[in-house]
């Protein structure tokens, strides 16, 4: 702790044990529910602990909705098929980018997805604890034994044989003492910027699609051939020159070179804000970033309404209630996935997922977004196993991947796949009475294949 920080003394005290689980999953966002479902379906007693009042994190509350890549198998694909049946997703589709075509899974209606994830967890027997913040892991002799939670009832303890840290920021692994780097690492680490999604209502989507088809300033796009697919399959990225001209002519200052628009259930979701260099662990800086996103949302909305056909009668419909954080801690695991691994598609014998996500870099220093289609790559089990601390796995955007590899592995298809793998591995470690570090990886791989998950690049079909 910084010696200049004023402190108070918090007296030690006994706290009640709320429950004892086999597997505790911390964070019910994009990744956590997959881990919880995978472990519970194998018969483990699972608790899934989430600080907000619904599941899905950035996928649902963050209004992110669209996986940047195909969902190639396993529980993620099962969930999307169920969402589609419930009217909460459209067709999967192909987008044109600067580097060629990229296959994308359909966006999903966040409200349908919240209910679906919750139902699947409940059906699998997962004990969800909403509105519960996990403040600390309890560690004895280098092994985690459970977590301390905070809620209206005060502080309580939830015991665990294994913790799966799906908090996005690796809160548990880091507090337990696992080594990590922030962003690019080094003395002056840089991280991908934060953004806030929002929805615009009353957009004439058809008029927008007709205009965008022939607009040279929207070079990356997916425009469905049939009008009935406009509700889920319209995706546009660009507007760079129009934005530049708008700012020069109006004096409105925005922070991002481009705008991404996508439809979800017929509504227009806008990704257009950016704040660089935010320390999201500082509550003051975090709040300043939220205010800056609000300011930018007003400016972007004015641009869209005044300059883009189809937005003439549009208004701001909904702001995401959470700030979208792209990058913080990367845990140092038994292996660190590198940028070249994800570009060359290095083959790993302990692969737990083949991933077809795009490369999606928002440069920490600013500049245009680099969104590229690439051949699949593999994620080894060792990236989920932190160094030094026993009985904890990480999954989601905080796995052991360097800043360049994270440009692919932070995408939702990869996050969900690591969640599914971590939950499966945790359950098998419990079944076998062994540690997650020593779990028989071949057994984990067999279980994942049983779920229909391709583990090597050449196994991806279609
Ligand atoms: C603005 C933005 C746009 C993006 N665009 C795309 C895109 O188009 N396509 C794509 O595939 N990916 C995109 N990404 C990346 C992707 O969405 C994320 O990397 C991914 O969703 C992260 O999943 P996660 O489960 O690791 O984190 P989250 O979804 O953030 O889940 C973490 C969960 O843990 C909970 N939590 C955290 N700490 C605690 C605690 N201490 N106690 C209890 N609960 C806790 C949180 O409340 C949250 O629900 C984008 C990201 C951002 C920010």
Describe the structure.
The structure is a single chain. The protein is of the alpha+beta class and 462 residues long. The chain has 2 domains: 17-91 and 105-188 and 328-355 and 376-459, FAD/NAD(P)-binding domain; 198-319, no CATH class. The chain is built from 12 helices and 23 strands. It has helices spanning 32-41, 74-85, 110-124, 171-176, 205-213, 230-233, 240-250, 283-307, 339-344, 403-409, 412-432, 441-450; strands at residues 17-20, 23-26, 46-49, 93-97, 100-104, 127-129, 133-140, 143-151, 154-159, 162-165, 180-182, 198-201, 220-222, 235-238, 259-264, 267-271, 315-319, 329-331, 351-355, 359-361, 370-372, 377-380, 392-394. The chain has a 6-stranded antiparallel β-sheet with strand order 13-14-15-16-12-17. A 5-stranded parallel β-sheet has the order 6-3-2-10-23. A hairpin with a 2-residue loop joins β7 (133-140) and β8. It is globular, with a radius of gyration of 22 Å. It starts with 16 loop residues before the first strand and ends in a 12-residue tail after the last helix. The mean pLDDT is 96. Bound molecules: flavin-adenine dinucleotide. Flavin-adenine dinucleotide binds at residues 26-32, 49-52, 57-59, 64, 66-68, 133-134, 166-168, 171, 195, 197, 271, 324-326, 396-397, 410-412, 415.
């Amino acid at each position: 702790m910084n010696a200049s920080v004023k402190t108070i003394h918090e007296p030690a005290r006994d706290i009640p044990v709320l429950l004892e689980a086999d597997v505790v999953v911390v964070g019910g966002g994009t990744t956590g529910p997959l881990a919880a479902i995978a472990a519970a379906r194998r018969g483990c007693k699972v608790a899934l602990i989430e600080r907000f009042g619904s599941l899905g994190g950035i996928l649902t509350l963050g209004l992110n909705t669209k996986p940047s890549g195909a969902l190639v198998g396993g529980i993620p694909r099962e969930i999307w098929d169920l969402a589609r049946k419930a009217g909460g997703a459209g067709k999967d589709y192909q987008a044109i980018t600067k580097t060629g075509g990229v296959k994308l899974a359909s966006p999903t209606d966040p409200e349908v997805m919240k209910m679906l994830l919750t139902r699947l967890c409940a059906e699998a027997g997962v004990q969800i604890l909403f509105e519960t913040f996990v403040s600390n892991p309890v560690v004895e002799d280098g092994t985690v034994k459970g977590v301390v939670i905070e809620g209206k009832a005060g502080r309580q303890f939830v015991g665990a044989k294994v913790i799966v840290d799906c908090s996005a920021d690796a809160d548990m692994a880091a507090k337990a003492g696992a080594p990590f780097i922030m962003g690019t690492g080094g003395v002056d680490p840089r991280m991908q910027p934060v953004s806030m999604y929002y929805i615009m209502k009353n957009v004439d989507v058809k008029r927008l699609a007709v205009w965008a088809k022939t607009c040279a300033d929207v070079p990356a796009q997916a425009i469905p051939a049939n009008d009935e697919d406009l509700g889920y399959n319209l995706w546009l990225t660009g507007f760079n020159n129009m934005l530049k001209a708008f700012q020069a002519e109006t004096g409105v200052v925005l922070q991002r070179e481009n705008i991404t628009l996508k439809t979800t259930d017929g509504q227009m979701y806008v990704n257009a804000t950016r704040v660089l260099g935010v320390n999201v662990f500082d509550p003051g800086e975090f709040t300043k970033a939220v205010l800056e996103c609000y300011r930018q949302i007003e400016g972007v909305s004015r641009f869209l309404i005044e300059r883009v056909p189809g937005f003439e009668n549009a208004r701001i419909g909904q702001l995401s209630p959470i700030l979208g954080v792209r990058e913080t801690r990367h845990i140092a695991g038994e292996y660190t996935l590198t940028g070249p691994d994800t570009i060359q598609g290095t083959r790993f014998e302990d692969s737990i997922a083949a991933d077809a996500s795009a490369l999606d870099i928002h440069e920490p220093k600013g500049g245009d977004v680099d969104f590229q289609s690439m051949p699949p790559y593999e994620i080894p089990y060792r990236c989920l196993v932190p160094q030094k601390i026993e009985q904890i796995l990480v999954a989601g955007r905080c796995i052991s991947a360097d800043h360049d590899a994270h440009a692919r592995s932070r995408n939702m298809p990869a996050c969900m796949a690591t969640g599914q793998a971590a939950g499966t591995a945790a359950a098998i470690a419990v079944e076998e009475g062994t540690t997650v570090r020593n779990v028989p990886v071949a057994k984990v791989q067999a279980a994942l294949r049983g779920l229909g998950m391709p583990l090597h690049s050449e196994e991806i079909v279609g």
